[in-house]
Design brief:
It is built from 9 helices and 14 strands. The chain is of the alpha/beta class and 307 residues long. A hairpin with a 6-residue loop joins strand 9 and strand 10. It is globular. The protein binds threonylcarbamoyladenylate (TXA) and magnesium ion.
Length: 307
């Protein structure tokens, strides 16, 4: 499948493909997505097949603006409006009671739907042109690293989709924060670029804790996920001759010096792990980042990659 530059002609073609039930790889500001019409059960089934994703793992529905929320959510609490006002468009996904029009395939039979307005203009323009809400999981095979460039989309996925839109490297680099607003206490299900403290200060109250791991509320919470093929270990000090990610000076050509700022670290994390994976060194050692609140998303992905 050819990779097309994101211009008006590409977007119009892609919108047509999505309206007709096709699947398109699209850029978002977080990671690339495997996009289809969220209201078309057959198209959604094809996305699950392409990814090799278990059916009980619901998709995020992308809309072009807050005004489109009523077409996918049945109702929402005032907190959803407050958070949308502050963080949409952007890397925040809200879980809300679903609209009956959204098929069971999209939400894995849950009575809730995960929704976000992506910050990437290409994604928003495409959703608007398509005229339908767009379901898009990350454009990786189940359990592997999400692509943050069009070139990083797995060849197995590339051959199965109808189009790939290149919108440049993703500005955030980690998947969106997922917050559950369907119960009495808002809870973060997956940490991301929008941090717990930003949400708490916007809502003016503390968030509920994550449910214990045995309660599989959200499949993004599988213990192992977002993983390179090479074994990854978190260490206090990367061995001198090991391949991996370090904060100080690399001691060989298989180490990458990572930024000390959490957001900048998140932007390049998946690309760095992908490159290390290709070097096929048998093990990737990652110097443990600090535990601070702003590192929550990075540490979550690293722990999951380490299994
Ligand atoms: O940044 C992102 O969110 C990217 C881009 C493409 O938007 N998408 C993404 O989708 O990461 P995916 O399918 O790889 O992850 C969706 C996450 C999963 O952890 C899933 O369990 C959770 O959202 N999720 C979806 N619907 C849910 C629901 N109704 N209740 C709870 N969790 C839900
Ligand atoms: Mg994913």
């Amino acid at each position: 499948m050819s990779v097309r530059e994101a211009n008006q002609e590409t977007l119009e073609l892609a919108a047509g493909i999505i309206r007709r039930g096709g699947v398109v790889v699209i850029p978002t500001e977080t990671v690339y997505g495997l996009a289809c019409n969220a209201l078309d059960a057959d198209a959604v089934r094809r996305v699950f097949e392409i990814k090799g994703r278990p059916e009980d793992n619901p998709l995020i529905v992308h809309i072009s603006g807050f005004g489109q929320l009523k077409s996918v959510a049945a109702h929402w609490p005032i907190e959803a409006e407050i958070l949308a006002e502050r963080f949409w468009p952007g890397p925040l996904t809200m879980v809300l009671p679903k609209h009956p029009k959204v098929p069971d395939e999209t939400t894995a039979k849950l009575d809730t739907v995960a929704v976000r307005v992506p910050g990437h203009l290409v994604a928003r323009d495409l959703i608007q042109l398509a005229g339908v809400p767009v379901a898009a999981p990350s454009a990786n095979l189940f359990m592997s690293l999400s692509p943050t460039t069009a070139g990083a989309v797995d060849p197995e996925i590339q051959v199965d989709v109808d189009m790939i839109i290149d919108g440049g490297p993703c500005e955030v680099g980690l998947e969106s924060t997922v917050i559950d607003l369907s119960g009495p206490h808002p809870r973060i299900l997956r940490p991301g670029a929008v941090t717990r403290s930003q949400i708490q200060s916007t809502l003016g109250r503390p968030l509920g804790e994550l449910p214990p791991p045995e309660v599989k509320r959200s499949p993004g919470m599988y213990a192992r996920h977002y993983a390179p093929k090479t074994k990854l270990t978190l260490v206090d000090r990367v061995a001198e001759d090991a391949a991996g990610l370090v904060f100080g000076e690399p001691t060989n050509g298989f180490q990458f010096k990572m930024p000390r700022d959490a957001a900048s670290y998140g932007v390049i994390l998946y690309a760095a792990l992908r490159r290390l994976d290709l070097m096929d060194k048998g093990e990737i050692q990652v110097e443990r980042p600090p535990e601070g609140a702003e590192w929550e998303a990075v540490n979550d992905r690293l722990r999951k990659a380490a299994g």
